[in-house]
């Protein structure tokens, strides 16, 4: 793996950790935190397994299922975060769309490449 990939993986890890920390601060239930952590670790593992195919071998047919479950969880989290954002009384009507746009751009620019590479890795034969 090149140093750029490692830097990107660190950035993805920081964004993921920030999301888990935000869930913790919002006092989400323990199972929600656990699912978020497992989902982020699954994506990161499959991302690394793209360049290190021997890491994918132990997962065999479970890799696509784990990836699909992670993506379902991530979609649930996005909708839950948007719902929580809309219900936040501290944010006025002007700040809510700006924050939602920032989150969407961050997800597309930072997380989407990891999801794509992890998906390719998960469904490789």
3D architecture notes:
By secondary structure, the protein is mainly alpha-helical. The protein has one domain. About 80% of the residues lie in helices and about 0% in strands. It has 4 helices and no strands. It has helices at about 5-25, 30-50, 60-85, 95-125. Helix 2 crosses helix 3 and helix 3 packs antiparallel against helix 4. The model has no long low-confidence stretch (mean pLDDT about 85).
Top keywords for this entry?
125 residues, mainly alpha, 80% helix
Instruction: Give the ordered list of helices and strands.
Output: HHHH
Radius of gyration, taken over Cα atoms and rounded to an integer in Å: 16 Å
Terminal-residue CA separation: 21 Å
- Strand share of the residues? under 5%
Could you provide a short overview of the structure?
With 125 residues, this protein is mainly alpha-helical. 80% of the residues lie in helices and 0% in strands. The protein is built from 4 helices and no strands.
Q: How are the SSEs ordered, and which strands pair?
A:
Layout: H1 3-25, H2 30-51, H3 62-87, H4 95-123
């Amino acid at each position: 793996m090149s140093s750029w990939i490692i830097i990107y993986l660190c950035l993805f890890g920081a964004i993921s950790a920030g999301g888990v920390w935000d869930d913790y601060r919002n006092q989400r239930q323990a199972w929600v935190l656990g699912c978020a952590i497992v989902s982020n670790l699954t994506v990161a593992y499959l991302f690394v397994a793209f360049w290190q195919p021997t890491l994918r071998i132990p997962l065999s047919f479970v890799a696509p299922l784990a990836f699909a479950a992670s993506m379902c969880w991530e979609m649930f989290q996005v909708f839950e975060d948007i719902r929580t954002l809309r219900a936040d009384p501290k944010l006025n009507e002007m700040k809510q769309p700006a924050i939602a746009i920032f989150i969407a751009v961050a997800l597309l620019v930072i997380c989407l490449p990891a999801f794509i590479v992890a998906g390719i890795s998960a469904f490789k034969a």
